[in-house]
Amino acid sequence: MDSTINRAQTESNAASKLFGAAMALTSYVCQILVPVIGLFVLLVLFKGKNIIPRHWPLIGLLPAVLFQHDRVLDLGFQVLERRGGTFLLRGLWFLNPGMLVTCVPADAHHVMSTNFWNFPKGSDFRMMFDAFGNGMFACDSEDWSFQRRIGRALCNHQAFQTLSVKAALDKVENGLIPVLEQASQKCLALDFQDLFQRFGLDASFALINGRDPNSLCLDLPDVPVASAMDEAGKAIFLRLLYPKYIWKLQRWLGMGSERILSAAKKTLYDFAADQLSFIRERSNIGTNQTEDGLDFLSAFVNEVEDFQSPAGEKVLIDNILSFLLAGKDTTSAALSWFFWLVSLNPSVETKIIEELKAVVPAKEADKGHLFEAEELSKLVYLQAALCETLRLFPPIPLQTRTPLQPDILPSGSRIDPSMKIIFHAYAMGRMSSVWGKDCLEFKPERWVSEEGRIIHEPAYKFLSFSAGPRICLGKEVAFFQMKAVAAAIMHNYHFQVVEGHPVVPALSLFLHMKHGLMVKVKNKWA
Q: Which of 78, 88, 206, 366 has the most crowded CB, counting CB atoms within 10 A?
């Protein structure tokens, strides 16, 4: 009798477990199938329609985000302008706790400066940006403090500053100018965005380990690591837009943007491993820096106790990718938009050219000239025009943070750890409440004081270089590179955007142009 009862109880327990497992599986399948079916219905309903950004019952702003994702920045700006600078972005309400989108400078100051430690980038950010590892760009807490300390010391080191100046000027003279000259002589159209990305890549390589890959040369060769970074940037931006379950399902199935991202990650890590091999060779012969100055990898090798251990290698790989990400795409995006904006504003172009002429030595007044560092430092109006470009087209248009504790932002928005905060830098630069009624005008004069000096706006109002403890360490390097390139082109060449060439933002982590910037150039002094 007892054995019969025990056997019955055992069978009952097994059945209960089987039933529980079946229910759990059914629940999981429903979590996937219901959203997928819902998205299919939305696609049928909204395909081809110009959807006004609004909150729909149950589905929030999902239709506008999914079916007009190529206009997501402008859609966000429209909603923020209508709602006074903040709104809560929800997708399917039962799967998405929501993301608070804000372009209020006081919110940026509160999160990025005043309460910095309560707002890390968070584990979800690192998961979305896994293609670029856990370097300074993505990490938090002690890892961030350690890497930030090394980066700050490096950027303040005279040897690194010397190397950054030399690398930029050399690349202008020996990389950019020959390509422009060839295009001028043969009446060829050039993709300025591609040239500037190559410039950023080569200059970044020089600062990472002193090597120049010469991607900016007459042949303009294919550069796999650059292409991989572009593809990764597009896929990561889609991860930011879409609900987590969509891209996780794509990753599991190995399809869509996640398949492309997987291939890009392999290319990026193979590249970083190659850089480590070079560093090992250099270390074995007794030197950890270039002949021209202290480079990025030298600084980290000197601080990482055992850089050849698996843990040490990971720190170096992650930071190689972070540094390359920041160096290649930020300046190239800014320069592309700068030349497009200047082409639309002849009066600004005239003022820049006049300023350039004023610093050229008298003996070179009627011939070509490449500007030295001291001359570039005097170009106030050019820097103002670059600042104005960055205001309207920030290279990183969206920035995210995750609260550790509940809080109330200065805008009155309540947030908790289940939410994300997105700072819409693109919209902030276009808000009349922040920049005045002429905020949509390209007006470099707003950056020049009555004394003829650059006006330094608060970082939380001008988010192109982030703000607070995470403010960009390479800001001065970036401005120097942009001024060196812009001055060389504008003083020595006439340039004209190809008639009819479409200029629209690309859907990517960085604010590139979807179709590049096709331009024709003509040497002024030939």
A: 206
H helix or E strand, kind and range, residue 99: strand 99-102
**395 vs 325: CA distance, rounded Å:** 12
Tokens encoding 355? 């300023």
The model's pLDDT over 326-363, given as tens digits with 9 standing for 90+, comes to 888 899 999 999 999 999 999 999 999 999 999 999 88
CA dihedral 268, 271, 275, 278 (to 10 degrees): 160
Please, where are the H alpha helices in 100-172? 105-109, 123-128, 141-156, 158-171
Q: How many residues does the chain have?
A: 526
- What is the rounded distance in angstroms from the CA atom of residue 86 to the CA atom of residue 423? 9
Q: What are phi and psi of 418, to 5 degrees?
A: -80, -10
Q: How far is CA 257 from CA 224, 250, 339, 397, 410, in A?
A: 17, 8, 31, 20, 37
End-to-end CA distance of the chain: 108
Q: What does pTM read for this prediction?
A: 0.86
Residue 424 CB: number of other CB atoms within 10 A?
Answer: 26
